[in-house]
Amino acid sequence: MKKIIQLANQSEIEVGMAGLPDCPTLMLPIAKKSMYNQEAENLKLWGVDPELGKHFVEGLADTFQVLYFDYEGHLFQHPVENLTADHIVKDLLHIADEMNVTSFSYYGYSWLALIGLQMAIRTDRLESLVMGGFPPYNGPYQEMRVVTHKTHTQALSNQNDPVESPAGPESPNEMDWDNIKVTIDTRVTAQFVSLYQSLTAFDDRSIQHLLSLPKLAFAGGNDTIVYGENFGSVTVDIVGLLKKNKEQLADLGWDVEILSGAQMDHTKAMQPAVVLPLIKPWFMNVLLKNTGL
């Protein structure tokens, strides 16, 4: 089942529901639409599954009810002025309401993972939370504020230049951050600046006592990106922060997993073939163990 839902800024997003209606619901805002032909081949060069959303939904719908949509893709098509974490959480809860979903579990990756954390402290409708590619404790909010600000500044400078599509590296970790030319729509870059600015005063260490639900955090073993001078000369060390605080997180009730494998960076650690073997058994354990299903 698919439905078109109008959000707070009057834009419309396509939302799907699949799987078993009598089973717990998983919200997947990371369900990107499938890409084909040359676009698919370009994604494969980066180690990205061109049918990422489809494979996540199919991989979970035989056991759960899956509420899925591509929220990031939607923001790229319909940028939001003054985007904040509160705005996004309201959008996602509105989507759940429109799909008649009262309670649900959440899986988000990268910035959509931190949105899951924001949702968890704003509503009691979450049954469990999985955060991939963004640590839930002592997260790199300041570093990402710098990176997004620098990205937006460069996009503004380059907005009148012709768009070039040179062959890129195989992963963000191999990107030459000193020489990359940012040509993204400035309305898109501006909203992510707003998002991290809205989190400037947020202290994820102080809200852990509010998270009385099953929760999992994971990252790739090589998920560390060192940005050059053009992006603020900062290092976003996702896996380093997760490892550093692993014991503290365990004491706070978090399950923590570091994904091993060749060059398991930020991109490779978000692919369905890697993530599903981790999150599907975890969701089954925390959601189905007492149901008899």
UniProtKB/TrEMBL annotation:
Keywords: Hydrolase. Gene3D superfamilies: alpha/beta hydrolase (3.40.50.1820). One of its GO terms (molecular function) is hydrolase activity. It comes from the Bacteria. Residues 155-175 are annotated as: Disordered. SUPFAM superfamilies: alpha/beta-Hydrolases. This is Alpha/beta hydrolase.
